[in-house]
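Hi all, posting the design record for the shared folder.

TITLE: backbone redesign
STEP: 1 of 1
STRUCTURE INPUT:
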């Protein structure tokens, strides 16, 4: 190879290499939490481990999922941020102590439909293998098919029927979002996935049952929302990535926009 050509090749390789590294850096920057750390409530509980009493930390985290970014305390900027109509979790930066038991309660305020894969309808990786689901049913609506009769909406006022069920699964065709967490890098292996049942609503996005009053930026949500609680144990330090596996975005098979932009339907859990 002649010197000039070699120099050109070398220059191109350098530029390309810098571009790749720059691209990776930009991609990683986009994966960084953009909210203040949220560590919930941490308590210490005595537990017997191999015949010895030890103090085990228990962490309680409260999360919410919303059909838009107009909820009180939303993290995306003034008046719902750049995308006030995007679905969103309310935190993207969870931080918990090493070797703790983590209990997450999610208040889920969104409608939904069918998962692409029933794998995510199963509860995975929790301490009991199960999660506790609190949902509301309505006359004329079938929770297992997520369908309501044509007259169902008119029969709904404040008369939802609350049901609490502890189960290792939720019907894959009535899911609003999922909380699906996996290890990254050298973090100890962990997969936790829990489906979050959908709230009943009509095709125009209006929810059944009573609503909250609009807040200062206009968000209203179903009071009779679903609530899911589950616990899992973390080991040593590491960073875990979590996201939603229900196609709740738009474009790209409904995995675009809110589903592919960090901090809406995704976040991290850092074990320290
Ligand atoms: Cu989602």
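Okay, here is what came back for every position:
SEQUENCE:
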């Amino acid at each position: 190879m002649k010197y000039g050509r070699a120099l050109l090749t070398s220059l191109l390789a350098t530029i390309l290499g810098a571009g790749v590294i720059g691209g990776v850096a930009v991609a990683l920057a986009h994966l960084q939490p953009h909210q203040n750390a949220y560590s919930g409530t941490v308590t210490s509980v005595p537990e017997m481990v191999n015949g010895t009493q030890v103090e085990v930390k228990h962490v309680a985290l409260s999360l919410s999922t919303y059909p838009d970014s107009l909820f009180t305390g939303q993290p995306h900027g003034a008046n719902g941020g750049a995308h006030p109509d995007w679905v969103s979790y309310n935190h993207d930066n969870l931080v918990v102590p090493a070797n703790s038991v983590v209990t997450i309660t999610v208040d889920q305020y969104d409608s939904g439909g069918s998962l692409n894969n029933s794998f995510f309808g199963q509860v995975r990786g929790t301490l009991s293998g199960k999660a506790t689901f609190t949902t509301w049913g309505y006359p004329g609506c079938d929770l297992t098919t997520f369908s309501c009769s044509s007259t169902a909406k008119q029969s709904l006022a404040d008369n939802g029927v609350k049901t609490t069920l502890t189960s290792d699964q939720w019907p894959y065709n009535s899911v609003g979002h999922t909380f699906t967490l996996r290890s990254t890098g050298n973090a100890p292996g962990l997969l936790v996935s829990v489906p979050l049942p959908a709230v009943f609503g009509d095709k125009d996005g209006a929810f059944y049952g009573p609503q909250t009053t609009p807040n200062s930026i206009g968000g209203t949500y179903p009071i009779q929302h679903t609530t899911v609680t589950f616990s899992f144990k973390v080991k040593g330090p590491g960073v875990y990535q979590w996201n939603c596996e229900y196609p709740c975005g738009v474009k790209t098979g409904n995995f675009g926009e809110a589903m592919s932009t960090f901090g809406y339907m995704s976040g991290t859990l850092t074990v320290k």
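COMMENT: The longest helix spans residues 3-31.
Let me know if anyone wants the other runs.
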